[in-house]
Amino acid sequence: MTSNSTLNYPNCWHARGYGLFAANPLGIKDFTENKTSLKFSLESGRSITFRYRVIISSDLYLTNNEINALTNDFARKYEFGTNKFSQLLKKA
After folding, report:
1. Cα separation of 28 and 13, whole Å?
2. Taking residues 48-63, what's their average pLDDT?
């Protein structure tokens, strides 16, 4: 899950056969065959926070309702109502 306050929400996710599983908010150009790109930089001294939750389930299939409940819980903890980074990018 990706918080909607995270840069470039919703993010692309990818996995590799050697065990890598990652969110990639900055690689949109590669995932869209160059149709979409992201120009983002931080001023010196500024920071950025990326928020994710990964649910790992072994031998248990979660229902849509269970997944939605976990998603809603995540949203309640970290959402601020708007995507702050879309506002930041407009200023850049």
Report:
1. 10
2. 83
pLDDT at 47 over 80: yes
The pLDDT confidence band at residue 45, using thresholds 50, 70 and 90, is very high
Q: How confident is the model at residue 24 (pLDDT cuts 50, 70, 90)?
A: confident
- List CB contacts of 84: < 8 A, sequence separation 6 or more: 5
Q: Closest Cα to residue 79, out of 5, 23, 25, 7? A: 5
> From residue 61, how far is each of 3, 42, 58, 65, 68 by CA, in Å?
23, 40, 8, 11, 13
- The alpha carbon of 6 is separated from its chain's Cα centroid by a whole number of angstroms, namely 6
User: What's the rounded Cα separation, in Å, for the pair 20 and 88?
Assistant: 30
Pinpoint the alpha helices (H) of 1-92: 28-31, 64-78, 84-91
